[in-house]
Amino acid sequence: MNSVSSVPFSGTKAQEAELLAWLEEHKDMKGLAMPALQEAQRIYGYVPFEVQKLISETINVPLEELYGITTFYSMFKLYPSGKYKISVCLGTACYVKGSENIYNKLKMMLGVEDGQCTADGKFSLESCRCIGACGLAPVMTINSDVYGKLTGDELESILAKYN
Ligand code: FES
Q: Tens digits of per-residue pLDDT, 53-72?
């Protein structure tokens, strides 16, 4: 499995131009930092360091403030989603059936932390709360596929199905 933790930033000039145009248009807005980050996430799909730096320099808000906002509010993603988005349920029913062990094993196998994506862009991993399939606990989803009554031993063969 992969051993590097995240995909390099690959924002385009067109995305940058779109964000800069939005910032110019809204430069007089009060409390611009939050909406600017939301707009950046809409454009890029996430708000990595490079984008936060661009916003910081453009609207003169300290990078630390932007970083504080993006790490405090769970709506912000600091890493891109992978081609295959793995989500492990850590809701109560799944948790008591050992989903945390599965989640930790996946982190180790993929070499990523929560919310991160493998360097090849293939898998991203996140935890989630109850997805309403408690009868199948412990549960994980990969994009729209649902895997229930999971054991750690199955993970390797499940991941191997995704190319
Ligand atoms: S707690 Fe995991 S599906 Fe409900």
A: 999 999 999 999 999 999 99
Contact 100, 60 (CB under 8 A): no
Pocket-testing residue among 87, 96, 139, ligand 1, by greatest number of atoms within 8 A of Cβ:
139
Nearest Cα to 139, choosing from 83, 92, 77, 79? 92
pLDDT mean over 147-152: 96
Distance between CA 80 and CA 12 in Å, rounded?
14
CA atoms within 13 A on the CB side of 81: 12
Q: What is the pLDDT of residue 6?
A: 60
Q: Please give all residues whose beta carbon lies within 6 A of any atom in ligand 1, as ranges.
A: 89, 91-94, 130-131, 133-134, 137, 139
The continuous run of DSSP H or E covering 38 comes out as helix 33-44
